[in-house]
Amino acid sequence: MTSSQFTNLATNLAARIERWPIAGAFTISRGAKTEAVTVVAEVSRGPHAGRGECVPYPRYGETPEATLAAVQAMQEPLRHGLDRASLQTAMPPGAARNALDCALIDLEAKTAGQRAWELLGHPAPKACTTAYTISLGSPAAMAEATARAAHRPLLKIKLGGDGDGMRIAAVRKAAPNSELIVDANEAWSPQNLAQNLAACADAGVTLVEQPLAAGPLYTVARYGEIIINHHDVAPTQLSGSFGEAVLSSPALVVAVNLIESRLADVNIGGAYKMIGRDLTHHRSPRLRCTRFR
């Protein structure tokens, strides 16, 4: 049976919540969790099934139960021909749409006998270094956790605001050879920003993620040649000179929540293209494919 013939078959949807225990607790500035909760969507047509998943974020007013219900509500539209393109206007941006978008990409690729990257018009992915995360804690606890992971080439350090300078220094001492990136999860303020950035520079940190709470776009500081912009950057401002300006410094890059805060209006394929273009200037580009928010 050809891929065109599969389009006449019924499309079915199954969705569920999955809970994955975490060894110990994973702590960031917004709190701690002992399990990872995902919502899984599976869309099937004929012999093929596409799978996608998402992580509902309380930070954005999402819950697993509401996300599951939003996915399940698409059963009838899918049976009546809802496809990947029409999904973008049929659902609001968020975790639920992300799961279905990924499932439909997977289904479409399997039906066509292609890999997902071929379907999206991209070259085959290559192996890349991923970051190992150190949870937020006291400087001593973070240093101890870092020492156990010091053999890893790239560490992502969760920070919490006040006292972060001591945390950064302790982590660097425990892992002198690892590349360090940090994520404050909006815990910094304009009052401690310069001090925390200085600590990052002293420790050779190469990227700062989500330093400040979401708000209007404005320039809050200049740190050497680095221009630090606030969160709410429209998708149209992510391309071209903006990406190059933010990523031009060879020492420290300050990320402005481009992925999590304002890619809500971009579908998975579009976000893949956008991030692939704008982050390739950084020597260790990283892309979380399960969440575009």
Keywords:
TIM Barrel, disordered C terminus, 5-stranded parallel sheet, 293 residues, alpha/beta, Enolase-like, domain 1
Briefly say what this structure is.
The protein is 34% helix and 23% strand. The chain has 293 residues and is α/β, with parallel strands linked by helices.
CATH topology of the largest domain: TIM Barrel
Beta content: 15-25%
Q: Which CATH class of the largest domain applies here? A: Alpha Beta
Question: Which overall shape is indicated by the principal axes computed on the Cα atoms?
Answer: elongated
User: Describe the biggest sheet?
Assistant: 5 strands, parallel
Strands of the largest sheet, in order across it?
4-5-6-7-10
The tally of domains stands at 2
Question: Helical percent range?
Answer: 25-40%
Structural class: alpha/beta
